[in-house]
Amino acid sequence: MLGDEVASQHTVARRRLLPTWKKAAFGLLTSCLLLAALEGLLALLGTEPLTVEHDPLVGFSSSSPLFVPSSDSDGELATAQAKLAFFNRQQFPRQKSSDTRRIICLGGSTTYGRPYDDVTSFVGWLRQLLPHADPRYQWEVINAGGISYASYRLAVLTEQLLELDPDLLIIYTGHNEFLEERTYPRSQRPSWMLQQATLLAARSRIFTLIYRGLHGDPAAGSQRVILPEEVDEILNHTVGPSSYQRDDFQQDQVIRHFQLNLSRISRMARRRGVPLLMVTPAANLRDFSPFKSQFSEAVSAADRKQWQLHIDKARLLQIEEDWQAARQQLEAARQLDPRQATTHFQLGHLLLKQGESAAALAAFRRARDEDVCPLRALSPVVESVRQAARREGDLLVDFEQLLAEQAQQTQGHRIPGNELFLDHVHPSIDAQQLLAEAIIDRLGKASWLSLAASWTPELRQQVSLELKQSLDRLDHARARRNLAKVLNWAGKHMEAGQLATSVLDDLPRDPESLSIASAYMRQLGRLPQAIELMRRRLAETPADLDSLRRLGSLLVDNGQAQQALEPYQQVVKLAPRDAASQHHLGILLLELGELDQALLALTAARQLEPSDANIHYHLGIVLARRGELSKAAASLRRALQLNPDDEDARYNLDVLQQKLRSGQP
To answer: Which Pfam families does the annotation name (predicted)?
Structure first.
């Protein structure tokens, strides 16, 4: 008995000596098991995490379905009429047959097929290729790509599309995240760890249940930004990218929102048992300069001037093909402001000329990522797609890497350019086909489909030939013309000019393409070609005032002042009440020594626009050359009253006053 008592005392002692950390660990483990069990129970009961059913940052003023019952055919759905400004026209049965596989492709304008349409998008290619790749099924491939649609709009659209019983969703997104104005709270900005903890909690069903108990409907009373039902781009309210300013906080929040939307889309699909395939967005790195470069705030005015000197010197040295000296100038410019996108873009081209393709690729990527108007998916956006696919267990086609490999094969480096893109982000028809084939191969590797033995390069080439032969070449040329106009409006004159020049192969008399191509040749210093293109433009639209002015200016720049007289006189004949036209004619007549006619034109210009200092200045010069010194001095004095900083007017007035005082003629 005594031994038992002693043993019992030892047992009690051992229990009392159990370390505190072990007790805490056992308690934590028990709590985790209970929470996991509760989370699982809520999942069985159908409770969805807050992030799946609710976007905490963005809402919409209204929402209408993309596909509605067709007015042409019973039992079919078609794209709603109100949506056709953003989406392709699609039509398909409401109920799919038992041997049909339905694929719905979401995204922005690349999915849409811009600058063309659905037929040459990767969606259209899938529609043509899948029956050959796996002929066991009937294939329905639906294009739900919306022009300018960003991920937060696609998340809402996904909820609709999952009701259509798809067998697979494919999403290509990332380029449009900065197109619309959105604001995020800046006060009391949470730390990165707190943001991650909050996001993790919002993915929990327990958190969702507690939140509902405290707040009710998650959308009610929230401080979400309310956007219109359809896209309202920032660029619609400005000329080019001028409204965009560097905002690192905003950029960071947009990327986090993008990551949240990818997770929401993935989990909505998984909840419905629908596989999801993500595609990384790819962009034209080599042949498309940044939309907007901007100095860092800390860069002084003196350093900005020095930066410009380095850039100008580098340009001249490259003309002389002194690559190393040009590189030193660009490196010096980069040191002054590492965030100037233009520097990185020019340095990328120089490094490529020197055979340093890896360094060139890094420079081109940095140029894209420092673009203040980020209309190409930034590096963190592209990487977010990769991470989302890994994290959520979704399929992935790395289109960015695919095009890098294609560039390596055809260009000898991994930097894609105009051989794969039509502009900054829209792939060529061949690149769209390449993406479709990569998607099919990925689905085959995942055993989602079974590739037929006949699925060979020769078969794919035959399908490609048949599709391309069916295209309307003129329609495609007009689409490229429209794209050139957009690029020109956005300030991308060189890129627009290259595109417009190619359009003229198919539309040699297209007025807008002729104008853009002429301006492009002028930028290149090819004045005879620019003049010839502008004459062709005027042959189509003889009374176009802007074209007449441009032709006159080109002829003057090319040393053909006498020939320039005709278009300038034609402008005045068509618009006699336009002061600028009278002014330009007067200047040209002055250069030609036709002083009487110049006086008439400039006098008319002064009557039409008496507050224009330059008109008074040129009128003073004409009067002086005619020997009317007093009148000339009065005109120059008026020019200085209107523009006190005009040094030429001040100098010429001083000369005239000296002559008047000395009595010289």
So the answer is: TPR_16
